Known about the structure:
Blueprint: H1 15-20, E1 27-30, E2 40-44, E3 47-51, E4 57-64, E5 68-73, H2 86-93, H3 95-101, E6 108-110, E7 117-124, E8 127-133, E9 138-146, E10 152-160, E11 166-173, E12 177-180, E13 198-205, E14 208-213, E15 218-226, E16 229-230, E17 239-242, E18 249-256, E19 261-271, H4 288-294, H5 305-321, E20 322-324, E21 330-332, H6 344-359, H7 361-364, H8 370-390, H9 417-433, H10 438-445, H11 449-460, E22 483-484, H12 485-505, H13 509-531, E23 532-535, E24 539-542, E25 545-546, E26 552-553, H14 561-564, H15 575-588, E27 597-598, E28 605-606, E29 614-615, H16 616-628, H17 632-645, E30 655-656, E31 663-665, H18 670-686, H19 689-693
Helix pairs in contact: 5-18, 6-8, 6-9, 6-18, 8-9, 9-12, 12-13, 16-17, 16-18
Amino acid sequence: MGSIAIKSGAPRDIRASVKQRDFSKPWLFDLNTRKPDKTIDIGGHGLSLSLDALGRVLQASTYHPECGVIMANSFEQFDGTRYYDVPYVRSYRTRMLQSIKQNRPGFGLDFGIYAHHVSIRIIETNVALYHLTLANNVELLVAVKVAPDGSFTQTAHATNHSADCLLLPYALSINLSINRASYGQLTEGGPVPLPASRNVLDKIDATTLRVSNPNLEAQFVTRLDINGQPLVLNDVEHQEVCGRTLSACVKGKVCIPPGESATFCASFRLLPDTERYDHILAPPQSISHDLRSASKSRWKDDQLLTTYVVRRNVDYILGNCVLPVSDSIAVVVTDHVALPLGWNRDNYWQVRLLLETYAHAEDLVSPPFILEVKDKIKSTVRGHLNWVFTRAERPNGYWQRSYLANGKPKDRSIFQLDQQCYPLLELCDYLEYFPEDLDFTRRLLNTGVVEDILAVLASKQDPVTQLWPTDETPGDDAVIYPHHFSSHVLLWRTYARLGQLYLRANQDPIAQVQELSKMAAQVKDYTLRAFSSEHPCHGRIFAYLTDGCGDSTFYHDANDVPTAFAKEWAFVSTFEEISIWESTMRFGISSANESGYCNDSPYGGLGSVHSPGAWTLGYFQELFVATSVNDVHVMRNTWQKIAAAMQWDGTFPEAVDATTGECTSKAWFSWPGAMIGALLIRLKMNGQEKVLLQ
């Protein structure tokens, strides 16, 4: 079988700059000419933080048992009357990005001085380190750190290198609002009404401030220590506002003699209640530990861009997307800003990156950290499987489109075929990677959820076409015809792998395995016959949607990842089947795919009707197919586009401008980074990584 000749755009040659950039060192920004293209995101222990270029807090978020996710924001709550206003939803998602561009300060510790040169490094999932050189010959080190109890600190160490005494101004800003996550979607499936915005500022004691939102049952507490002593807050007055942020600030100045230093530590905690008074805030921290940690790389080959992408996307998932619900249950959200919701689809691919990292930890992670990384990954995957099998509600018998972190369905009842498959595949993956954990797998099988989903799938099969309908595509878009190709590829893989799972778990191995094997064969047979169609220019390809009776549509979407995997999974296996698949991918990643391919150069690529532009998931598909046929030219060209689309912190947006490579949609989106990261691990292991870096 010949290789797939995919026409790639002609991006500017960025490989030289990629080689020169040492990603093991901090990013250095001249804030007069270049600011970070997104927030500095760290997290852990159930808390996520987004910071600006000077270490000020733009958002803190955490799990809430009633609301799902609550946030302390530096801007007002989402307007609950505008859920179907797509431009407003898009604009609201960019509030933090606009704050960085316009230097609008967040809340927390602020020295009121605009530093031109700032180096920024995320040294661990829960620690960001800033090094600022101020115009008055003052060196400022700032470490922002999430503690094991879910609190966080901003610790600043200011050193006066001048010959004169320095009066350094400082401020503890309380310009914030406690909000529930908006859950506003571009493809809105049913808004969750927002409680009215109400923020109350008071004092717990002489040194501790509290902001509470009684309508959310949430509170945020803070204090400031200077040189090891808590600051007394006598001048702070009670304040209450509705529909906007609080406006409060504690200001002062500290005298720093020549050659000496001052230390500031602002401590914070966001809590999902208003009744607790045991606010144990972290004591003042020394910044020296974080400096020592910065000198010890946790990852091998940390100077490579490929390693940077892998570790930063693993960091983002573990630090910002995993929210503990209990000691043994954890929800995984697709991102911590735009849509902190659980999607079975996104979660599966996020977990796949974690599992690939686990499997190759000895080749990826420095020896002192291997056990820690592997333990964290295993507990995360177990926690997520517990969540999806025991907490995610199924009011109609099947998994819903998306979920609040507490397991409540977010949208009205919408049946998406692919969403039923992913948790079952994740369970299969778990036993494959952790064969010793058979008892855990059996416990989830014994919940009856797998049988329930199989019964739903059986009831959904159309008796005329023998195909399975879906209400929406994986892009959450309504369908013209009821049957969707890539969802059938996924359904076939689910039936096939479930049979293997039952064999390993000894769950009625004979009857159940025979039935699952029979269903897998039928799905493949029905799908190949129903979707194989004649395209006027590309010959025989797989249709995107069909009614099963002769009418179909030709299209391919960046969200339809299973189509790209059809050959590797052996859904297509004969010469003829593989030829049809190759033609399908050639069509999909070309301008012939009119509503799916963004043809503008130099960063054109596969996108989606869901959002305009080239999608980083589309870049993944292009690179994945090129690597499968070892097309070195396309691999290198596509890698250049991926490197250009990468944000400064190694993560990827949903879509980019095909002319500039800059984010046009959803700067926080973990699915594409998870896909690209997992592929890079594979390329490293099979020796193809060097092709990208040449």
